[in-house]
Amino acid sequence: MSRLSADQLQTFVTIIEYGTFEAAADILGVSAPAISQRVKTMERIAGQVLLRRTNPIEPTAAGENILRIARQSEYLQQELERALAGSTGHRTISIAVNADSLATWFMEAVRALAVEESIYCQIRREGEFQSSALLRSGEVMGAITSDPHPIAGCSWEPLRVMKYWVVASREFVQRHFPDFPRVSLEQLDAAPVLEYDRQDYGYHRARQLLEAQYRINPEESDFSLSERVPAPRLYVPSSPDYARAVDAGCAWGVLPWEQCEKGLSSGELVALVEEPFEVQLYWQHWNIDSPLLASVTDGIRRAADAGQNS
């Protein structure tokens, strides 16, 4: 198999970043037919289709591998130029982090890396169940993820466990669950629920726990599925604001231990289930020899350990 050239890899990244052959041509200072020819040559070398000709253009599964390698090659070239120039200035790294980690323990890693090593994190906020996609495309160099399977071309290690409690304010419980600690299906369906976004895994896990806790079987309800009215849902795509909405009694929700510990201790919050559920987090990053990634990995590991043990 022939090797892909640096120009071809740069072209591929530019197409993805700008969305069309024409835009990539403008950025690279060549014609659109020249861009198209480079892609055809790459696809002939790879023996596979690498791009979906959509608007914007997207990589295929094989194209994602090319994209990640291209971005890694670009980074290694920059590292080489930096080393040859003897640069000792600041460095940056792109990382995908879930909102709850950002709101609880991860900012200590950001602080320590910036203050102690002049490493500055460019953070992409992404759900722990979705952040793997950013690694596969090479858009980030590392990610906090719940994916227990190593991504191709990446190193992987368990990081820490996040414990989540299903909670509501005491006033909310008195208003919506007047028979607590008994809760009926009708009360649960009528009680407003808080979600982070429409991909919120926590809500579905919490609903399962609530139904198990109160021995609720929706199939045994007096109401048919078509007659049941789903609970009102509030969407708050910010972890600190989500916690404030729960504290304020807007709805019941799911909070990491760090965000509900004080409320549960004071009695202002009520645990709706007896035990928390756990989400194992992993740190995945490009599998390349990089002093920058080694330093960032150490910093994240220290912050995760401190947060786990606090």
Explain this structure:
- The chain is an alpha/beta fold and 310 residues long.
- Helix content is 48%, strand content 20%.
- The protein contains 13 helices and eleven strands.
- It has helices at 6-18, 21-28, 32-46, 61-85, 99-104, 106-117, 132-136, 170-176, 185-190, 201-213, 239-247, 257-266, 291-309, and strands at 51-52, 58-59, 91-97, 119-125, 142-145, 154-169, 193-195, 233-235, 253-256, 269-271, 277-286.
- The strands form three sheets. Strands 3, 4, 5, 6, 9, 10 and 11 form a seven-stranded mixed beta sheet that branches. Strands 1-2 form a two-stranded antiparallel sheet. A two-stranded parallel sheet has the order 7-8.
- Helix 10 (201-213) links the parallel strand 7 (193-195) and strand 8 (233-235).
- Helix 1 crosses helix 2 (21-28) and helix 1 (6-18) crosses helix 4.
- The protein is elongated, with a radius of gyration of 24 Å.
- The N and C termini lie far apart (53 Å).
Poorly predicted segments? none
Largest sheet: 7 strands, mixed
Instruction: Report the strand count.
Output: 11
- Radius of gyration from CA coordinates: 24 Å
Structure annotation, total helices? 13
Amino- and carboxy-terminal Cα gap: 53 Å
Shape: elongated
What percentage of amino acids are in beta strands? Answer: 15-25%
Fraction of residues in H or I helices: 40-55%
Task: State the order of secondary-structure elements, H for helix, E for strand.
Answer: HHHEEHEHHEHEEHHEHEHEHEEH
Mean pLDDT: 89
Structural class, by secondary structure, is: alpha/beta
